Amino acid sequence: MESTYVQEFKVIGGDFLRAGQVSTRIKSILKDIGINHSIVRRISICAYEAEMNVVMYAQRGKILFSMNPRKTHITVEDEGPGIEDIELAMREGYSTATSEMQEMGFGAGMGLPNIKKNADTFHISSVVGKGTKLQIGVMI
Amino acid sequence: MTLKQVTEILECTVLSGNDDLQMEVNTGCSSDLMSDVLAFSKPQCLLLTGLSNSQSVLTADVADVKAIIYVRGKRPDERTLELAKSKNIPILATQYVMFEACGKLYQAGLRGIGKIL
Ligand SMILES: Nc1ncnc2c1ncn2[C@@H]1O[C@H](COP(=O)(O)OP(=O)(O)OP(=O)(O)O)[C@@H](O)[C@H]1O
Ligand SMILES: [Mg+2]
Question: At the topology level of CATH, where does A5-139 sit?
Fold first, then answer.
């Protein structure tokens, strides 16, 4: 069996003061073990966009980060409103961000498309009224 | 061009990274929307933005942005500045608005990523 590194992080909805910290943590872990820069960048972008969506739209969530010598995997699961029309949400430019979120620099409607573009494997599922789950894989 | 040249062209105040002014930057990226930066910036670029909160620094870190210039007189708070220092991201500030700041740097030879295909 290949050794696998696993770590779980909690994300709190609406906590903009700490928003993004999990992703920068994951980034520094990957940097410290010497993973190629452009791969670290892709994983970090995926983690950051997913983390910010939990902070902006959900009540709470958790990020499970795992990695083995061949790939990294990030599962982001939240308890929140869920997404009614996933196809629409995946469209570049589609956003329901409030004006407050826009003032903080969000709401381009690029987050989910960015994740898809940077991931090698990507899966999104959601149940309205319950929450959303993203599964993101990047090969090392 | 170096950050020092950028500082001269835009009459910047150096808020952090005084020791890094010899750093070279070859491409620029400007936006107030952080996902646009994550989608359309090149690694090692210079980021011009009017968004001076901690998210601008975290976005810069995630996207491997080399240095940040806050335009139109925007200033980060102390906490954001400390965050930038801990990530080794130099922070400059200019009174020029975004249009002039980008125009002046472009005129001096800095380039962007061109068209989105
Ligand atoms: N975890 C989530 N829970 C509920 N709704 C979500 C979630 N993630 C995304 N959405 C919905 O999908 C839309 C598109 O998300 P996406 O991340 O692509 O863009 P954005 O967050 O609006 O803007 P950006 O990411 O560019 O700052 C959001 O505006 C929101 O309506
Ligand atoms: Mg988003």
Answer: Heat Shock Protein 90 (3.30.565)
